């Protein structure tokens, strides 16, 4: 139970800071709990929604959100989700798991070697 609380806390904390906390949750769900990739990603999205709402509230309160591009971001996000959901049915779970692992590796390398300007 303590591990589940810790994973939930770390995922929520890193997600609310914009650091991609979803990868912690997905890796935990797929490797430790042995949940398939599609279900883990669905749970991750359901976990992300309340965290995103709370984060947006605090970012608006602290004047950290530029409201001008907000509508475009919301609309493109909705289309991205719909496209993502549609394409998950076209591929096998094993392929999506490997693709997810490759993307995590690439983003990890980018974070390690990318110099901030």
Question: Which features characterize this protein?
Answer:
single chain, 117 residues, mainly alpha, 5 helices
Question: Could you please describe the fold and organization of this structure?
Answer:
Helix 1 (2-16) packs antiparallel against helix 2 and helix 2 runs antiparallel to helix 3. The mean pLDDT is 82. The protein has one domain (2-113). The chain has helices at residues 2-16, 22-32, 37-61, 70-88, 93-113. The chain is built from five helices and no strands. The chain is an all-alpha fold and 117 residues long.
Q: Topology of this protein?
A:
Elements: H1 2-16, H2 22-32, H3 37-61, H4 70-88, H5 93-113
Helix pairs in contact: 1-2, 2-3
Task: State the gist of this model.
By secondary structure, the protein is mainly alpha-helical.
Task: Using the CA coordinates, give the radius of gyration.
Answer: 16 Å
N- and C-termini, Cα separation = 42 Å
- The level of helicity is over 70%
How many structural domains can be distinguished in the coordinates?
1
Order of helices and strands: HHHHH
Instruction: Report the uncertain regions.
Output: none
Q: Report the structural category.
A: mainly alpha
Alpha plus pi helix count? 5
Q: Care to count the β-strands?
A: 0
Global morphology: globular
Strand content is: under 5%
Major sheet description: none
| Mean pLDDT across all amino acids | 82
